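Hi U.,

Before I forget, here's the chain from the pilot set. I'm dumping it here mostly so it's searchable later in email.
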Amino acid sequence: SDAVKLSKFPKQQSLRELGQGYYHLVFRYLKALWAAHATLVLDVELEKAGEHSLSGDVQLYSHVWVHGRRHGAATQHRGQSAQYAYIGHRIPVQIQHIFRVEERFTDTQTLTANLAIVCRFQEDPVIFNFPWALWYANPYTSNCTPQLIFRATDIGVQVWQANIFGRSEVIALEQLSGHFVLAQIPVRRRDLWITIAFDHVCRIFASAWDQSEPYCAGCHRIRRNNRVRRIIVT
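Structure:
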């Protein structure tokens, strides 16, 4: 993919040696991904006609660029400074490993995949009333009825358990969607992680407002761009 730029000097590695369960994790992912092109079987099975045994050999990378953003692996010295990232819409993860799979099926067919093994942040079971998690009333709606705006969603602030991660999962590198600010705070004799998104922009269509100046608690300046008004939190 043009969105992915791999770093130089990869290391050849076996998934079975990389970590317990990694081979089967990647096997299940690739079996579904390549289902239209090949039938994958485990390396401990005998191949039948039309089947291909997944070798489990990969090229391991310390870091990579996705859409111009640098991401790194927590298990690599050169990747630790960029080991945290968003996937999808503001789902924070720790990147465990970054690697490329190349499987040659025939003399003319080679399938490749640029992948990462990640672990998601885990929400704290205790709900704390942080200032950014409050509902604010916006009086400037089209029907003159106060409209509630959830600031935590708008400005991208979330709370997680510190140093607690979910199970490992495989993703395509293209799923890495951005960076965030990570801060640790002590709350009631426990440590929590706060993630703060860099894209503090909520887009609100002008049709949702009347001719009055729109207002959002916590937003300090407003820009207009044709039909769309951007409320930018600083």
